[in-house]
Amino acid sequence: MLKTETKTLWFLTGSQHLYGSETLGKVAANSREIASALDKEIGRASYDEGQPRLRVVSKPVLTTSGEILAVCREAGNDPSCIGVICWMHTFSPAQMWIGGLKELKKPLLHFHTQHNRDIPWDTIDMDFMNLNQSAHGDREFGFICSRMGLERHVVTGHWQDQEVVAEVSHWARAALGRDESLSLRVARFGDNMRDVAVTEGDKVEARMQMGWTVKGYGVGDLASRVDDVPDKDVQSLITEYKDIYSLSGKITQDQAALRRLKEAARIELGLLEFLGDGGFGAFTTTFEDLHGLSQLPGLAVQRLMEKGYGFGAEGDWKTAALVRCMKVMGRGLEGGTSFMEDYTYHLDPSGMKVLGAHMLEVCPSISAAKPKLELHPLSIGGKDDPARLVFTVATGKAINATLLDMGNRFRMVVNTVTSVESPDLPRLPVARALWVPDPGLRIAATSWILAGGAHHTGFSMALNPVHLEHFALMSGIEFLLIDADTTIREFRKELRWNDLYYGIRAKGL
Ligand code: MN
Questions:
Q1: Ligand 1 center to 140 CA (angstroms)
Q2: What is the pLDDT of residue 118?
């Protein structure tokens, strides 16, 4: 269900009339060339093969405050536009930008580049100097952004340098996530798991800050939709399961088990229809409120996550929305994204690890191999044995991300981890991941806990921390990273400084 509309980034080049039409003609041509190269590079990396993709669109060179104001307003009114990239090829007196920047509602990337890469030592003259002067034109633009206190990302380097393009691309993916976030609707079936603190939060603030609409439903609303699913649809979904997964012998030979699998399929179809009709991109369930459903949705949740829906268990709407935004940001990249929970530890000093899993709900997009479809009793909840996909998560680099409501702001914490080979776990009937967090479990978990990080996370093998850092900045929320360079002493200081910063900001000082 990942949407496939074309989204655009606008490439804006600033200049002024001082240089005459010949120079401005060259500025425009160079600007188009850079925008078209970014379009090719960023577009190639974004989205899936054969799908509409992110485009970088070149706009006419801006030489007056009126033109700047008009294009910033136009960007704000165009739903396809997810951000603007600004570059001052020549000097563009920045007072002209104040009116436009005041009204700019889209994420801003200041691209501090230059059309020519090298200085032509033997031929350089004043005409060349006047044309290629972003070295000071961009400083003037940077000043006004800082003076106005604008949140933006600055990328420095030549536009054909792959490292530079990658940095722009990271920001572009975050802008796609931000765009999704602003219109994201989350369906909650039932409320929060009773008494749990970290999964709670201020939904009004979340709507103001992140754009999320969180709608609550009695699980009966879902149950009645599930009951209405025609048997023939259930039957064809069972056929699909048989085609895709390895079904355990117990299911195919045991009538009671097959009946439970059919119920799981019915839940999947009812849920899919409910979310589709309501325009939802993410949802939550809770095992404490399953009235009218015969089993906890496990298989259904796993398969919907694989289709692109965000999910949070036990009413965790923050993680559900975050997982959805992460899936949108990671689209077309190798590796998947899932809801995850730090479950239990291996504390052997020679190799400490975290075993991550959930009751049932881990997304098959991060599976190493073809998942097995199994039915097992759930030790809590007192319902029928739920169907679930069982698999081990692929090995490699990953991140864990959590979102918290600290009372006066939202805080995102990200930890880089390495998913490692797991021994056989013959008696564990759920999907699981085994990982080593950076810079080692002791420092990682201590830092995470000092930051108030949740047990629920968005776990991604597609994204890196930079994607989420940009996303947090665009959303105006706090961002903390735990990685190979983290020390407890420095992390504690960062927490204190941030408390001070957000305390002052909340008071408007
Ligand atoms: Mn949980």
A1: 50
A2: 97
CATH of the domain at 23: 3.40.50.10940
Q: Is the pTM of this model over 0.70?
A: yes
Q: Compute, in angstroms, the gap from residue 473 CA to the centroid of ligand 1.
A: 27
How far is it, in rounded angstroms, from Cα 494 to Cα 492? Answer: 5
Give the structural domain span for 130: 7-171
The answer on 167 and 137 residing in a single domain is yes
Rounded distance from Cα 295 to ligand 1 centre (Å): 17
CA 350 to ligand 1 center in whole angstroms: 28
- If you search the block for the tokens 């993410």, which residue do you land on? 282
Per-block mean pLDDT, blocks of 10 residues, the chain (509 long): 80 94 95 96 69 89 98 97 97 97 98 97 95 96 97 98 96 96 97 96 97 97 96 97 89 89 97 97 94 94 98 98 97 95 98 96 96 87 87 98 97 98 95 98 98 98 98 97 98 98 81
Please tell me the distance between residue 199's alpha carbon and the centre of ligand 1 in angstroms.
9
3-state secondary structure of 239: helix
Q: Ligand 1 centre and the CA of 496: distance in Å?
A: 29
- Rounded CA gap, 73 and 67, in Å? 10
Q: Residue written as tokens 């060179």?
A: 61
What values do phi and psi take at 400, rounded to 5?
-115, 130
- For residue 2, is it within any domain? no
Indicate the residue among 171, 203, 222 that finishes a domain.
171
36 CA from centroid of ligand 1 (Å): 46
Cα of 455 from ligand 1 centre, angstroms: 7
* Last residue in a domain, options 147, 171, 195: 171
One-letter amino acid for residue 470 of the chain:
H
Domain count, the chain: 2
